[in-house]
Every structure is written in C-alpha cells, then in structure tokens.
Amino acid sequence: MDKLKISVLFWEERSKEGTEHDEVVDEVAGALSELGYKVSLIGISDDLRELLDKLDDQRPDLVFNLCESFADNDAYEMHVTAVLAMLGQPFTGTGPAGMALRQDKSVTKKLLKFHGVPYPNYATFDKDNLEFAGKMRFPLFVKPLQGDTSLGIDASSLVTEYSKLIERIGFIQTQLNVPALVEEYIEGREFYVSILGNDPAEILPLMELDFAKLPSGYPRIFGEEAKLDEASLQYDAVNAIVSTELAPEVRARLIMAGREAAYALKVRDYARVDIRLSADGIPIVVEVNANPYLEQTSAFALAALQAGMGYTMLINRIVKIARERWEPTPFLKELQKNRAGRARIRRKAAKLAQSYKTASLKADPKKNIEKPPK
Fold it and tell me: Would you call the peptide bond into 219 cis, given omega within 30 degrees of 0 as the criterion?
C-alpha cells in the first residue's frame, strides 16, 4: 500500500529577509514523517492561486490544517477551510461552518444560550450599533468581538469604572478596528476542557491555568502578553497545569459544559473549551477554540500526554480521526486525477508563454523597451 500523502498547511510571514513560520509546523511535520507518512509543506501568505497550485502539485490524501490566517488577517481563517471544502480536499480540524460560528463571539454566545450552556452576560459595542444580553455589573472584561490569540487582551481589559470602560471600548474600536465585546468578569479558577474525536468524543484530562506566580492584586487573565511576549512578567508566571483536587461532581459539570459547547459550535476532530468556575460552582464558558494550538508544550498536547498519548501518537490520532470523516470515494479519486491534469496544463501553458515571449523579443528587441508616458 502506498504511503499516505499529507500536506501540512500553514500561514507564513514573508519579508525581504525571507520567510518565517511557527515552530508547531516543523513539530507536526516531524511527527508525521516519523509515523511513515509522505509529508510535504504548503506555506501560504496572501495568494490564493498559490494554495491551489500547491494542492494540485502535491495532490495530498489529507491536508493537516495549521493555517490560522490569510493575508495577515485572522478573520480569513474560515475562508481557507471553505476553499479546501469546495475542492473536496480532505483536511483535519473544524470546517468552514464551525470556523464562522466561533469567529463572531456574540453569535457564539447565542448558540451557547440555545444549547443551555452558561456564559457571561455581555454587550457588544459597534460604532453604529449596541446589543445587550443580560444585566452587567463591574468588574467588566473588554475584548475584540472577533479574533484569536488573545489579541487586544491585557491587564487593561479588566475595568472597574465607567471611564476606563469607555476608554477601553474606544481602543478596541479605533486601534483594532473591530467592535468591542464587554463581558461580566467571572472571578474564579479557569479550566481547559480538551476534546479529541467526534462521535464519540474523548475528553482528555482537565488542565487548569495556574496564576499563583502573578503578583498579588494582578488580574488573573491569560492575555496577549502571557502568550506571546517573552519579556513580560506574565509570560513565565501563568502556566497550564494538570487539574487536581476537584470534586467528582464539579469535574463532571466542567466536562459536560465543554462537551455541549463544542457540539453547539460545530467544532470537530479536536477542540479546547475555556471555562471559568464561578463562586457558586457553575461552569461558565468563556471561549471555544477550534483547532487549538498543537505545539509540543501546549495545554492540549500536555492534556494528551496526561492521557498516555505522546506527541507523535496525538498527531496520528488527529490524522485517523479526520480520515474517518473523509472515506475515499470514486469522486474524490477522480478529483485527484483531475488536479494532476490541471497542474500539468498550467505548467505547460506557462512554459509556452515564456517561450513565445523569448522568441518575440529576439525577433524584435525594441519590444523590450518601455515607451515613455504621453
């Protein structure tokens, strides 16, 4: 049997100095190679045709989707999955519908309400439109209505007075150019419910954010600085640890809330649900993450390790889970053949065009001289 061909898809930052991508790309690709798959990379930036051409050239059996942006815009993440879906290209992780539902956090909350999953009371502040859902009281938490990786979330996001609230809403609207989401801040322990698989889904051991190293009185939040700024105080002070000392009934409530939230938002294959435990023991869902970060020391990978899955085994599980949703059919097999043909035609056309241009210039060198503007 031929080796399964897997292309790792990711966004890469490009500049005159070269290209850069997240370390998780090499870690996932390395794990796949170790498992014996035939691995190739598809790095994209802002050219959709490049994605189509590389898919045609590589003809993968499966795309391992690590792409979280396109044209340096996180909102386009769902459009990348839509392109893959329209092509009939099998890929790992959540599809375009799930990506779209979680992209707008007010839509997320409405779906959670429909499914009976607790969430913080909130209001959205667009420049021309306000929307309230429940009475709120200080302290309040202000963040962008759209976006990932905690962009725009730091210590200033937690406000305790009206003037600071208006100031922070203005910052989100003017500096990030998106509507602001204002939530009632939930004081309490924060847990990660990691979910692997679809039907049935496996719940990995619970992880908890440890804020113990933060100075007294400092906001207990896991914001942009804690995730990305290695020079910040929060970067080494906030960590995800295996959750212990939880009563069985509390653990069961957290798992049920996480499972229901993932189902409501149509996330698939693997997901992480962030939950705050209120003072009265109610799990409050604050975020649903599709395709959570898979770096080897990430919370999701650590939860899998606690369940007895090493990193390579985890990556293989995700591949097998995705493959179960994409059983090969005669249509998909024919599609792969057609892709190969389209790729050959484009390469031949490009070669003929270049040959024609070269021959034309040799026949009339003046054609290579630009005419001055009139």
Answer: no
Give the Cα-Cα-Cα angle 290, 75, 168 (nearest 5 degrees). Answer: 100
The C-alpha torsion from 17 through 22 and 23 to 25, rounded to 10°, is -110
- Burial per residue of 237-276, b for 16 or more beta-carbon CB atoms within 10 angstroms, e otherwise: ebbbeebeebeeebbebbbebbbbbbbbbbbbbbbbbbbb
Alpha-carbon distance of 71 to 79, in angstroms, equals 11
pLDDT of residue 364: 66
* Interstrand relation of 13-15 and 18-20 (parallel, antiparallel or unpaired): antiparallel
**Across the strands, what pairs with 208?**
191, 241
Does residue 160 share a domain with residue 196? no
Residues 289 and 332 reside in one and the same domain: no
Q: For 293-323, what is each residue's pLDDT tens digit?
A: 999 999 999 999 999 999 999 999 999 999 9
Percent of the chain with pLDDT over 70: 90
- Report d(CA 83, CA 87) in Å as an integer: 6
Residue 234, domain member (yes or no): yes
Tokens representing 360?
Answer: 């034309």
The CATH number of whichever domain residue 13 belongs to comes to: 3.40.50
Rounded-to-integer distance, Cα 283 and Cα 279, Å? 10
110 assigned to some structural domain: no
Do both 303 and 215 map to the same domain? yes
Whether 12 is covered by a domain: the verdict is yes
Residue 215 structural domain: 95-102+188-309
Which band of pLDDT confidence, cut at 50, 70 and 90, is reported for residue 28? very high
